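Hi team,

Filling in the usual template for the complex we talked about on Friday. All components are listed, including any nucleic acid strands or ligand strings, so the model treats them as one assembly.

SUBMITTER: L.P.
PURPOSE: interface mapping
COMPONENTS: three
RESIDUES: 1097
SEQUENCES:
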Amino acid sequence: MAKRTTKRRISKSTKPKKQAANKSKIQLNDDIGEKTRLRMWQLQLEVRHVEQRAHDLFFQNLIKGTSHLAIGQEAIASACAAVMRPDDYTFCTYRGHAHTLVRGASMEGVLGELMGRECGMLGGKGGSMHLTDVEKGAMGSYAIIGAHLPIAAGAAWKAQYLKTGQISFCFFGDGTTNIGAFHEALNFSVIWKLPVVFVCENNLYMEYTPIADVTAVEHPAADRAGAYGLESIIVDGNDADLVYRVARDAADKARAGDGPSLIEAKTYRHSGHSRADPATYRPEGELEKWLERDPLKIYRKRLIDFGVKEGKVVAIENAVLKAVDDATEFAKNSSTPSKDVLMTEVWADGGSSWRN
Amino acid sequence: MDVLMPQLGETVAEGTLSIWHKKVGEKVEANELLFEISTDKVEMEVPAPAGGVMKEILVKEGETVEVGAILAILDEGTDGSVGTTEPKPAPSLENNSQHLTHSPPAVSATAVTPNQDPKRRLSPVVRKLVAEHNLNPDNIGGSGRDGRITKSDVLALLQQKLSASTDQAFVSSTGSPSVDGKKVIAFNRIRRVTAEHMVRSKSTSPHVHQGVEVDFSRVDRVRSDKGVAWKAREGFSLNYLPFVARAVCDAIVEFPLVNAHVEENSLVVYDQVNLAIAVDLNFEGLVAPVIQNASSMTAVEIARSIAVLAARARANQLTPDDHLGATYTISNNGSFGTLFTTPIINQPQVAILSTDSITKRPVVVEHDGEDYLVIRPVGIMTQAFDHRAIDGAYSAAFLRKVKEIIETKNWEAALP
Amino acid sequence: MAELTYREAVADGIAQEMERDETVVFLGEDIAKAGGVFKATVGLYDKFGPDRVRDTPISEQAILGAAMGAAMTGLRPVAEIMFSDFLAVCWDIVANQIAKSRYMTDGQVSMPLVIRTANGGGARFGAQHSQSVENWSMMIPGLKVVAPSTPADVKGLLAAAIRDPDPVMFFEQKSLYPSKGDVPEGEHIEEIGVAKVVREGSDVTIVALAAMVPRALEAADRLYSEAGISAGVVDLRSLVPLDTKTIFEQVEKTSRLVTVEENPRLCGWGAEISSIVAEERFWDLDMPIIRITTPHIPLPSADELEDLALPSVERIFKTVRQGVD
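RESULT (copied from the run log):
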């Protein structure tokens, strides 16, 4: 079956046709704008450095349990966050530190939760895989593959029913495209025309197995889109600008009441599936090849190309580093949860009683 | 499964199938009443050992067969159970009661091992109540399956005790005003129980009364010699009753048949004397608490027991234990100056002795062939006996013996 | 008072709440235009329209996932799972997501949703369409569990469930759909977590749920007329929250407890109640606690076989009579 290609297939380069000489002329060529670009740069840095810090804290034995790091995949979450309204809803997987941070959740909240401290955004009760910040629209990280896809559709249903103009963004991995809930959610969202954007981050591996070994089609998400009457959309997930454009179009479509989209963003994760995974299943040279396409590397160059001063670029990075340090200190000094919270918050009344 | 003629008593070899309660083809529940048997000692209802359908009846009503004979065949297990109820124990027939009381019990046809003895199995709530109220389970009748003591058995007992203590005083209500020239005073519980017992006793036992005059001078000598010291030591006066009681126990050794119960055409004669002492509760009723094994006690011990029992009776602190197992009764009516009383037998005993007033009377005594008039403390003791059990001559001989003991026993030696 | 059937009371209860509250929405398979395969939601589509009463594809995970997403963000959805057996298909959403999200997020999310489903046997549908699975829900922390036995309770408890800020699993017993009963006029709401003593008794307490309640009542009548046993019957109505107070009051009075459950034997809801009573009211018991349940087998389809399996009036009567001495 021929692959469907559309105008949506974005070329890999958006280098400006001319160099920085005439800045204003370049800016006329710019459909994203410096403000948004700087925001995306900052978001990617925040994700990268928080994740890096999480990695280090694990080796210091301050983070227990399991953590799934998204180092190398920062561009996707950041670009989508830049597209979203503050009151839009996001749903992500257990590899969700990135998606939660980019909505504006605090670093202390993230690091504190990973370290099981009181200042953790879930009070130490949810852990790394369930990061949630409802105030910021981050409606949860989900540890059961596929579960959050229909849930994201439900949030979109609310927006549709109450006509609020909100939309849902739902992030998941390539492995999710083979589970039942993925298919139910897509079909359901299409027939109800729900304002939800499904974003598949294809990092080539379903946990420890190459996705190609377990999927009937080449592009696990994009090649399924047609089955639900949707456009096949593939984008370079390591280039924030490219993701931004695709996400923006999907968001506009949803907000206009024209229903859902399915985006497949190609990317790669630098670390293993979880912190316990040294990822020896990767073929030799694969990681190095992808490191060349590190999203931060790409975007640093992009900013310079678009005329942002190096000093500013670095300054933002330093500010982020400092923020991460501060947050780390804060979280380290936070106490472990009080035993009083053990039996709380099963029910809306704050309690957990099942009898009188 | 086979339904067998049950073992009814050690010496019983056969029984008569008197009534079938199920026909062939009828459905039978486990423990449902299946048939009745009679022997020369007892009538008994027998429950079905298992559930099922009556397949065949081998022994007809009115037929007499040996213990262990097959009476009928039951087709088991057609009661549709689907495994949610506890499996029934394999039925085998065993008499779980050697002691026949005067109301025949329904004997269970299921095997009872010692640690499954239903009478000993106390449920949690029964245990709790027994502990709370300081009861003795051995004295509580069990109306539950296989004689088990149930919660309601215990509650009924407690209710009895409660109403006994809170029952309206009978006699004192005579102080209330008359209406239309009369007062209607309803019987309280003790009155009702007494009334029922008295009527039943009279209609059960053909009463014959015999009286004998007794000279208490020897007893009196001991009483005057030792009375003061006794009172000081024991806290209560030494009266005639312990002497009478001890004399009765001694006489019973020679005349055991007065210390017995009548049971369905036989006399059950007891080895020891459990002596009931009738106590009047200030005109509010009669109780007869029992001195267990009075025959083994000295006069002194009997005196003490009587005092304790009487005190407890008047303070309404008698326990169910105190009423059990009497074999002979003494009723002391002397304090009111009566000459004699014809008492009513305390069922199921066969005799009761009334002692009445002991007064100084002129008596003729013979000495060296001469008659002299002397003043002696004399009292009439009257025994009522059940003429089914014994005859006048036997009773009279017993009374003569009691008189002799009272008049001639070395009472000085019997007291400290 | 109006006389309604149990199934009419379902539609009535949902309608009452949908009228009251704009955020109440309803989704499920064949529930809108068709009025439900059991005809329990007839009229709602006509009354409230396609925006509020929506048919779905056969996608149980999507149905419950969507209900959860909507509930988390401000709606009060009622979701139907056609046969309670199908909860197994979407059990992840129920047990892992809906039940746990509030606790895991330390109270950030609320889920005021109701999952209503047709539960139980007696309709000869066979093993995969006849199960009573309220006990599955009872065991998962974070779910409220309700199972009414009368039309009035259907309406009142469904209304209460919809108003409840927490997720409620609402089990309608399909064999009771045609049963009739009086339902108060006007707004009717009951309280979740409160059992009802539907028959006073002094010798034994029978605790029953849903379709077993009318059977227990019939058995109680026979127990009295044929065996002189005064049996009280408690309609539990809710498994979570559990009205232990009422159960204790009755057991203190009668000292005998029997449960009648449509669940198969192992881990039926009666096991939990027996355990609680045995532990906390041991010293009130005059008889071992007896559980009357379906045997531990899948349910057969043939009439006689299914009737043998489900606790019948006859079996309840005999078991209680045998136990009480």
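MY TAKE: Chain C touches chain A through 50 residues (CB under 8 Å). Chain C has a mean pLDDT of 97.

Thanks, L.
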